[in-house]
Amino acid sequence: MILAAAFKARSGTLPSLLGSTSSCGQPVSLASEAWRRWLVTNVSALDASSSQICANLNESRGVLRLHGEDVHQFLNGITTNDPKLLQNGTKDVMYTALLNSQGRFMHDAFLYATGEPFGLLADVDKKHMPDLMRMLTRYKLRAKVTIEDVCGDYGVWARFNPSPDQQDCQRGWPQDPRLKELGQRAILPRGTDVGGTGQDGDPSGAYRRLRHSLGVAEGPSEIPPGSAVPLEYNLDGLNAISFSKGCYVGQELVARTHFQGMVRKRLMPFTVQDEAAGGVEAGMSMYADGSPRAAGKVVTTDGQAGMAIIRLEAAFGPKQRPLHVGQKAGPLISAHKPSWWPEQWGQEQ
């Protein structure tokens, strides 16, 4: 990284062999402005005939720049993943979360290495970005870290195939660090030519539906801040948690739940069986036939599909019974176990 910055200062250009690259050819050890120029000129545009879709996520996601000589150590103490892997070039992007002291979810973020020795960019929930900035400022104390809103300079994009098993890798677009089925995700400078959005009239909606079909929630808008247990929202399977790094805020509950294997409910996709049924809304409870106890709760809905937190025993257990929404005789739903789930998930009950 230092050599890259020195070469840039001396000649204004960068040799092609300098620095490491991600699996999709994006450099992860270039000086910041060189990285920005590389993105503008090297991100491959979407071919008009491609089955892929480019979705601009700027309505729901914003970008922060965090920099300063303490930035990686600072984030290491308050996030669930290990940002030092960005600093040493092991990773170019990672998914992580911030918890409260009780181990409950507060915010998530995609952290991107830009090649700055002490800087990175964060893709975060736009609606809750002011709360996140206040939280980071509260934890910062005397750490040498600067936090900036750079939504005016950068945007968030996803590039994907609506069929999750048909994703491919295009130059300049890092793979989504959560699941390969989600395609690629990038922070790009404003004005970058992505070559159109593809053959879908609602690209951001198509991306949201893909996520929901895989049972992947995103941000405090879908993961209730202050109450959600990270493992119940599958963050352990989405590469958001390091179980080998040092201590961080909220670690005790996460580690105990993980190592004891005591996850009794998880987020999963569902479909409404009765096409004529209506009124399925977020927050509604689910009930198994013959049981007065709620089996789960709807988290999001999109037409006849959605995501819900459901007890694993009720969804996949040996005594599995039909599930209804809203009331014991409400619309019948079918819960689905995503193909990416580890084999042992669904057996913890």
From TrEMBL:
What region holds the CAF17 C-terminal domain?
Answer: 264-342
Q: Which InterPro entries match?
A: CAF17_C, TrmE/GcvT-like, YgfZ/GCV_T_CS, YgfZ/GcvT
**SUPFAM superfamilies referenced in this protein's UniProt entry, alphabetically:** Folate-binding domain
Q: Its domain of life?
A: Eukaryota
From the UniProt record, list the coiled-coil ranges: none
Which UniProt keywords are present, listed alphabetically? Mitochondrion, Transit peptide
- Per the record, what is one GO cellular component? mitochondrial matrix
Localization per record: Mitochondrion
Biological process (GO) annotations held by this record are: iron-sulfur cluster assembly
Stated name of the protein: CAF17 C-terminal domain-containing protein
Organism name: Coccomyxa viridis
